[in-house]
Design goal:
The chain is mostly helical. The protein has two domains: 308 residues, Up-down Bundle (Growth Hormone, Chain: A); 30 residues. The chain has 19 helices and no strands. The longest helix is centred in the last third of the chain and has 31 residues. The protein is globular, with a radius of gyration of 23 Å. The chain starts with a helix and ends with a helix. This is Sugar transport protein 14. Keywords: Sugar transport, Transport.
Amino acid sequence: MAGGAFGDGGNEKRAHLYEYRITGYFIFACVVAALGGSLFGYDLGVSGGVTSMDDFLKEFFPKVYRRKQAHLKETDYCKYDNQILTLFTSSLYFAALVSTFAASTLTRKKGRRASILVGSVSFFLGGVVNAAAQNIAMLIIGRIFLGFGIGFGNQAVPLYLSEMAPAKVRGAVNQLFQLTTCIGIVVANFINYGTEKIHPWGWRLSLGLATLPATFMFVGGLFLPETPNSLVEQGRLEEGRKVLEKVRGTKNVDAEFADLVDASEAARAIKNPFRNLLKRKNRPQLVIGALGIPAFQQLTGNNSILFYAPVIFQSLGFGSAASLYSATLTSGALVVAALISMAFVDKFGRRAFFLEAGAEMIICMVSSHLRLFHVAFLLRN
């Protein structure tokens, strides 16, 4: 419950009186924090590519490699059907899910910066263990560390960006997380495309380079300020005001600071926040906003497609290098879309972009399925 009306800056009764300048200090804080997105993006991009590399499969999953070679020309054969390989993939996401509960508590009690630092350290350890892996157990342990890092980072970074951003540009600033996620995917795909040619240890380089964004995030995080919202929430009012003045680039922050204090007091007045969420009046927001939208976003399968893009392209008959290159082009479209969203989200609003994206996905999915039906019909006749 680190967010809410207080955490996301939603209680802004005096918003028309807010003053701010985009300062170098503010830009530094947002860029460093946004690196948390690159952790998730890098793993999405690099892991799918590594699991399609022959050297990686020969060392840890020889049965999958032999099956892949035996059915190289078959496009409808699941070459990667292996439970341990699936565990390698899914262990990260399970660890991320579990870690979010601890991350929520740490973010609320110790601040957003603490979770960012913990996440970067855990992700660094995961990168080191995976790069040095000598057996499947080390691979799984490394993935668990990576999952913890992503769980802490994904929990704290969007909240940090929202709380540091001025109200008028909050949408664009919050989209930095999505932008760095997309950039992480693109960079990882380019790295995979290069390391695939380095035999037999190129995959180690791909996995080990995950330590770079984690290092940048940790070192930068040591100099990050805590958000004014979090400081006020912890009762450190004077410190919170000083940080707010520094981030906004002006001493005239009375209106915004008063709203932060009011929101903090309102949040404290709620004795049982989780029980309050279940009240009848809050159910629409809980079911649709907090649960439905995130769940259905994941159920579209887009993250799975991004993760398995190289494998999917190989299953369609692409060569190893061609599949990695094609995955890079696909992820490049994500960066372009994120930049467009950043440019216009505060002008047109979140709801407009949500509806546009949903309509676009429906059109793409329907058209692709119609195309598949058409191909299947031609093949049968």
